[in-house]
Amino acid sequence: xxxxxxxxxxxxxxxxxxxxxxxxxxxxxxxxxxxxxxxxxxxxxxxxxxxxxxxxxxxxxxxxxxxxxxxxxxxxxxxxxxxxxxxxxxxxxxxxxxxxxxxxxxxxxxxxxxxxxxxxxxxxxxxxxxxxxxxxxxxxxxxxxxxxxxxxxxxxxxxxxxxxxxxxxxxxxxxxxxxxxxxxxxxxxxxxxxxxxxxxxxxxxxxxxxxxxxxxxxxxxxxxxxxxxxxxxxxxxxxxxxxxxxxxxxxxxxxxxxxxxxxxxxxxxxxxxxxxxxxxxxxxxxxxxxxxxxxxxxxxxxxxxxxxxxxxxxxxxxxxxxxxxxxxxxxxxxxxxxxxxxxxxxxxxxxxxxxxxxxxxxxxxxxxxxxxxxxxxxxxxxxxxxxxxxxxxxxxxxxxxxxx
Length: 404
Hints:
single chain; five-stranded antiparallel beta sheet; 404 residues; Alkaline Phosphatase, subunit A; alpha/beta
């Protein structure tokens, strides 16, 4: 038996008036999920434990089978691991977004226009981060360039316990009440303000403005954490596992779990990603010797953060019509038994443009036997109707692996 997780990040939602008072999952044309849902177990799962914030770090760790209450040490250390940063036990890492803030007001009165600086390219971002390093590195702090708008700041012998707001939680809001708080708050705020003065007239940003794109005119620090540790996936499950993702966060979890990081060309973390490439790479690895592959697709989450329900629907239709269809067709053609878990990590409703901690709908399917528990489709409402509920999200993958 081969096992897959098809993770549509932030895929579930609230009802949207423009979609006829349906969620994106309900509205999307999902012929493959519609076909297998009556043969599947469909239910709800609580992926975010009480007391933890509903981030993709906590939720993906949970879906992969690791209890965040035991292992979670912060978001940015997971990304740092994927970026190849060698952390000491006393280092504190912070996620460093390149963002677009409004112009004109004092820094403290600005508005968060775009938490991703218009999905700035990795090449442009690297030029800006390397420029900032000349001014912000030193006194125990080091900036590291990542992918697109996602970067990292490492504080040597740093302190934790700060109140740092994720920028995607305050889209279109004034930043005044969301500036850093804690022992190093003034230092972090000074770095952010200095970055604005340095970046607002940088040639990269002047060019972006001329092209009608959002400038990356400030850094935003959040998601602090310390060097993480995580159990080994193979030792835990007896399965050789791999991960496919465009984002450092999920790849970092995979690296810490001793899983193979499967590279795929032209994956972006948005709705223009290479859906077919992800599907084929996963299937090739499973047919070639791996037992388990986790296919993470960021696209629905990014669309949710932008309130873009149209492309969120499109992303769900690509997951269904490209990824799930390829999995079903190729495994059946190969005569290979497989079991598949389809779920989001958390909801990212278009109405609020951020994550919420509500339970997510899951679907368990295998081509070996029926797992039906009465669902007609794979939607939020159908998941509620079945009454199936997994209270500890890290146990959901155990239900998948128990399928024989």
